[in-house]
TrEMBL record:
Source organism of the structure: Haloflavibacter putidus
Domain of life: Bacteria
Biological-process GO terms, alphabetical: folic acid-containing compound biosynthetic process; tetrahydrofolate interconversion
EC supergroup of this enzyme: ligase
Cofactor: Mg(2+)
Name of the protein this chain belongs to: 5-formyltetrahydrofolate cyclo-ligase
InterPro entries given in the database record: FTHF_cligase (IPR002698), FTHF_cligase-like_sf (IPR024185), NagB/RpiA_transferase-like (IPR037171)
Catalyses which reaction(s): (6S)-5-formyl-5,6,7,8-tetrahydrofolate + ATP = (6R)-5,10-methenyltetrahydrofolate + ADP + phosphate
Length: 188
């Protein structure tokens, strides 16, 4: 399928989920992440869920990262240039929901992308080859371009992999893993 078709299909699939299903599946995903060999790193970038888009609720993962005393990095989006600034999440970080429904820090300590070792990547759909499709603005592909080459990229999804995203391009960044409530996909 093409990215445009997948976006529509998976937005509809998400809309069909109740709030209870979203939380249950999100908790299962967070627990499955504990099985991955990713917990010896220091800097973890996590997306803060857009509630109105019914994304995977990353609150459970935030608790795990905090409990493991990891440095948690969240982004602030600039929609004029389609880029993100990465801010260290601390007890003093003030979060505000922007006009697109994205919770983001109002200010804070900026962390350079090369320091980030693990990125939890939002997505609408992914395929068995590790390609993903998001909302189509390219924020994460541009951000991942600025990270170190060995940065781990982990997608989080409520649904199984598609066979193939047909219209991938060289700028698309492949995932290393994708975790769903039912399965952990590893891409090599």
């Amino acid at each position: 399928m093409l990215k445009k078709e997948l976006r529509e299909k998976y937005k509809q699939k998400r809309k069909a989920l109740s709030a209870e299903e979203i939380d249950e599946k999100s908790l299962t995903i967070a627990n499955k992440l504990l099985e991955l060999p990713i917990w010896d790193y220091t800097y973890y970038h996590i997306f803060l869920s857009i509630e109105k888009q019914q994304e995977v609720n990353t609150e459970f993962l935030l608790h795990i990262l905090s409990g493991k005393d990891k440095n948690i990095v969240v982004s602030k989006s600039d929609f004029k240039i389609h880029q993100m600034t990465n801010i260290l999440l601390t007890d003093n970080t003030n979060l505000k929901v922007n006009k697109w429904g994205i919770p983001e820090p109002t200010e804070g300590i900026e962390i350079m992308p090369k320091k980030i070792q693990v990125v939890f990547v939002p997505l609408l759909a992914f395929d068995i080859n590790g390609h993903r499709t998001g909302y189509g603005k390219g924020f994460y592909d541009r951000f991942l371009d600025t990270c170190a080459p060995n940065t781990l990229k982990i997608g989080l999804s409520f649904f199984f992999a598609e066979a193939k995203i047909e219209d991938t391009n060289p700028h698309d960044k492949k995932l290393d893993y994708c975790v769903t409530p039912n399965e952990i996909y590893k891409f090599s």
